[in-house]
Amino acid sequence: VIPMTSSFNCGPFSDDGDDAVCYEIAFTADGWNNARELCHIIHAEIASVHNDEENAFLRRLAESNGAKSVLLGGSLAGKGVFFGWVDGSAWDYANFKPGYPKKGQGNCLFMDTRTETGQWINGDCNTRTPVACSGSPLS
């Protein structure tokens, strides 16, 4: 992935030039815990998504990396029936596929990059899939 030009330094990560957040589609993870480890290795966290622009950018980035789906940083774990972001940021945006989240289908959040708008589904946290990581610009 070739980083886009921006007013801040994302180093080897990519950014959409709009929200001062850097993104990377990391290696394929063997589930949630491995995904967090992979993001932490590159000094990032599993990505949270807060608007249509971020979602669209992540979808394009994932698609350009050949990922049919990516793990996002949303989880039901410890939150009952409500999703929350692992980075602690506000749950202020959602893009679920119609009929999702489905009860009993899984506690982790995935983006289906094959849908035009990068819609989300919930699924098994042990699913082997690429992970979307995000972090702050380098100082």
Brief account:
The chain is an alpha+beta fold and 139 residues long.
Order of helices and strands: EHEHEEEEE
What's the overall average pLDDT, rounded?
82
Q: How do the strands of the widest beta sheet line up side by side? A: 4-3-5-6
Helical proportion, percent range: 10-25%
**Uncertain parts:** 1-8
Q: What keyword list fits this structure?
A:
four-stranded antiparallel β-sheet; three-stranded antiparallel β-sheet; alpha+beta; 27% strand; 139 residues
What's the structural blueprint in terms of helices and strands?
Elements lengths: L21 E9 L1 H10 L3 E2 L5 H13 L4 E7 L8 E2 L22 E5 L7 E4 L4 E8 L4
Antiparallel strand pairs: 1-7, 2-7, 3-4, 3-5, 5-6
Molecular structure report:
This protein is an alpha+beta fold and 139 residues long. It has helices at 32-41, 52-64; strands at residues 22-30, 45-46, 69-75, 84-85, 108-112, 120-123, 128-135. The protein is globular. Residues 1-8 have low confidence and may be disordered. Keywords: Disulfide bond. Residues 18-134 form the C-type lectin domain. InterPro entries: C-type_lectin-like (IPR001304), C-type_lectin-like/link_sf (IPR016186), C-type_lectin_CS (IPR018378), CTDL_fold (IPR016187), Snaclec (IPR050976). This is C-type lectin domain-containing protein.
